[in-house]
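TOPIC: backbone geometry
CONTENTS: sequence, structure tokens:
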Amino acid sequence: MIGKPVDYDKKFKDNFPIFPAKLDFELRKYLTLIPGKEVLDLGIGQGRNSIPLAELGFNITGVDYSTKCLDICKSSCDKLNLVQCDIRNFNIENDKYDLIQSRFVLQFLHKKDSYEIIKNIKSNIKINGIVYIYVFSLNDPKYQKNSISSEFELLENNIFHNKIADTYISFFTKEEVLNLFEDFKTICICDEYRLELDRETPYYAGFIRYIGQRIK
């Protein structure tokens, strides 16, 4: 593993943001493709996607480093199986999960760690299982912001190192994500840039959204 996990408990110690649970439209659109009810959420956060899925009858295992996020999940839904863990250390049980999702998480790691997690997802998800990945794109304004910040150093492959916190933030391209899942059936691939309104202060974000299916 390279660097430390982002410590959201420490980062938001005095003003931890609370976000409503709301199933992403694109994932909802393809729910009928999920072959069963077992879901793994790597970086569950406050359960944005997983709480609605639990309410629809899916069995959720949610992994997160933040104890505060897990406490919020517990108070919002008692149907979740929650694990406090750095997702880089989580052992994905083979042939158990029908859906594995990681939404806005993998970009907060060095790409070598992100790639390893993706490799483990691909190796262990069930045949016909669905993968849902959501990461920052090069169009995200944070790319330019980090480029001129003395706090960050730009490494190879669009990776930034936070020299103070010893954490990383990585930015992806659509082609890169497709190459990582070249042996999967692509269901959806989007390179988006839009105004996000779910925070107290609206902001622009650029991201790659990928939904794919293991076919062999």
Summary: The mean pLDDT is 95. The helical segments are 8-11, 25-29, 50-55, 67-76, 111-124, 141-147, 174-180. The CA atoms of residues 9 and 15 lie 10 Å apart.
